[in-house]
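A further point concerns the way the authors explain their paired sequence and structure data. The central task, working out the structure tokens from the amino acid sequence alone, is never made concrete. I therefore recommend that a typical entry be quoted early in the introduction. An entry of this sort, consisting of the sequence and the corresponding backbone structure tokens, reads as follows:
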Amino acid sequence: MAATNLGSTGEHAATDAAGTPHRGRKPGPAASAPCAPGAVGPGAPPAAQAGPEHVTEPVAYDAILLAGFGGPEGQDDVIPFLRNVTSGRGIPDERLEEVAHHYRHFGGVSPINEHNRQLKAALEAELASRGIHLPVIWGNRNWDPYLNDALAEARQRGFTRLIAVATSAYSSYSSCRQYREDFADALADTGFGEGADAIQIDKVRQFFDHPGFVQPFIEGVRDGIAQLEAADPALDRTTDLEVLFATHSIPSTDAAKSGPAERGFGEGGAYAAQHLAVAEVVMREAGAGDVPWQLVYQSRSGPPSMPWLEPDINDAIEELPAAGRKAIVIVPLGFVSDHMEVLWDLDNEALETAQEQGLAAVRVPTPGTHPAYVAGLVDLVLERVNGTPLADRPAVTRLGPWYDVCRPGCCENVRLGFRPALAGIAP
């Protein structure tokens, strides 16, 4: 799902460089310097401005920018939030209300903001335990606190070099480049990207195959299989059981454009390739190499005429009894926390489909604030702080370590084309 520039109606407490209020709304699209198309390393500290694949020069960052998707926190927030998410697509409120019922079912509250509060606190505790003095500033793409609010806080506290950690692990337009575009939008909106004290923003590499992100899923698959086997000792793991790795579906055209074109990932692009590679590692490390598995998709929101990645998880579940399956483990591999699309699409719809098909089912946890995940995010920040050589960077698949500076043409939005974006080589 994607978003208008209508957002929260909260008090406008922060101002841009010209004194204009901007708190409580999503920034409009950036269109000019310092984020202009054709720039090299726009908005980046000097070590990244030349666009190296991996930055091996130490950088003295002032703070960490925790960048989230955002979510409503009350019934009155739901439609304005969905307008933000679908900005520029002209979707009427009546159609947005068709999606809003997912949020209304939970009182209009998405759990994503609370999860990010918990993650921020966990990161701060991990940093303090290691004696690392880097404040964590939190900003969202689509709801309060917005990214321009986070930049206003950075300016107020005198921070000009930020290292961003986005709550998204994989490569695609919506899971990487759109965050980078929103960084550019926020800098342009506030005016903080210009002048001698301009704010600069780097971003840690996509962490789909960092061991800190993968470890919680290994444990979850191991525990999920054990739970099903304990409930049914006669279960044959090689024929009766299947593991479904679930991630958000995206348009097939966007999937094909995910990742650098020169890598040649094929039809599903880097997005599908990364998920498949991680799933293989999870199954092996969980001691489940003899258990059937597949990658499935969820949460598609486009028109029926537009091809999206398939199979849908519910369609896949409906086919499993004919294959002799009796039980499934659902793994939310594409998600870092239990936000709305996990609670509704997996815990509600997918588990209901499994019950209808007579399948025993368990859904394993997302990383959330798992100690390995939190420590891994801090390790990713330290890679950039210390300029860690490529050979010393951990990655559990053959695809990584991924790039520090996104490559030219990476993750184009086929519908909109390239817009100004930070943390990469333009376009």
User: Anything to note?
Assistant: The longest strand covers residues 241-248.
